[in-house]
Amino acid sequence: MSRFRERRGNKSEQYFDYSLLFIVLFLLGFGMIMIYSTSSYEASKDYGDAAYYLKKQAVATVLGIAAMIITANIPYHFWERFAVLGYLMSAVLICLVLTPLGVEVKGARRWLDFGIGLRLQPAEIAKLGMILFLASMVCKMGRTIRTKKGFISILAVPLPISLMIWQITNNLSSAIIIFGIAALMLFVSSPDYKRFFILGALGIAAVAAAVYAVVHIASAENRGFRGERILAWLHPEAYASGKGFQTLQALYAIGSGGIFGKGLGQSMQKLGFIPEAQNDMIFSIICEELGLFGAIAIILLFLLLIWRFMIVANNAPDLFGALLVVGVMGHIAIQVILNIAVVTNTIPNTGISLPFISYGGSSVMFLLIEIGLVLSVSHSIHLREV
């Protein structure tokens, strides 16, 4: 599957993961097809152009692929010098959401508009910035990371950014993803797994306590919209006209798809029943049109992508390169798991897109830049003849 490119004057072969690149390009192409399928009705009704969302996504995808190619051809150590700047810029851009540059879409103020035709979501930049900063920090700390102080220091790094994203942009899902990226990078860097079991147990206990408080303690006035989402998660039928509407319609779509689906473009739920179906709930339309077969095929592709990440990380020339790949792997894996869990009502609705497939210009652009980093690391691997 993978091919090799030979460097002149060197007996070693320079590795490049074409398998990983093919999977990403396939997911992008499939995503474009599904975005058109899911959004054509709404786009035609709202903008008079069935391909409105497709065209916007295509522009972002082309820019993202160009950025990926450039990043893949730059030695990944070049970006290490910008690790601190990336962390600080993430914080600044998040704060800019509160200024006139901030744009509100569908009741959420999470984007920046610099007047260049594309909106930028600071949370996506923060994910990339966090991967760079943590990879650099772990390498500089060395064995110190094994100590209790080092462990706490790494976990403390994402907290300010996560809290800012949560409170300023009201985007809890991205805050969780950023903290999850940090936890995974720390997990592969630290040999003391007992701390992670304790951390996981505390996290589960905190979530259980929050759910219990919403259901049994908090009054209707104090629950807030997130409390209502938890109740809608537990009893979607009781909130069918409110917070549970989108979840129920997604479950109807999944259930009606059967094994092989209704056929591409034949979804009924996308015809105004699932709001913004091309975004967070696109997996439910995949299930409806392509059935269980299509859903499993996409999940297997993501698993194959994760496997390729693991191959590159295990063979990276140094710790910095390995951690970059682990960070990107964590970002994509966490987002895929949470998106599918939300669509299937396994967890409360948190508004998480499906990587490379859901509509979103900022998301696809920065995901492709991250893929460029991984390809740059893979390009630095040399195989010598035995």
Compact description:
The chain has 386 residues and is mainly alpha-helical.
What attributes characterize this protein structure?
three-stranded antiparallel sheet, mainly alpha, 386 residues
Averaged pLDDT, please? 87
Rg computed from alpha carbons, rounded to a whole number of angstroms: 21 Å
Q: Share of helix among residues?
A: 55-70%
What overall form do the CA principal axes indicate? globular
Number of strands: 6
Strand order of the largest sheet: 1-2-6
Secondary-structure element pattern, one letter each? EEHHHEEEHHHHHHHHHHE
Discrete helix count: 13
What is the total number of structural domains?
Answer: 1
Strand content: 5-15%
Q: Structural class given helices, strands, pairing?
A: mainly alpha
Low-confidence stretches: 1-11
Distance between the termini: 21 Å
> Biggest β-sheet, characterized?
3 strands, antiparallel
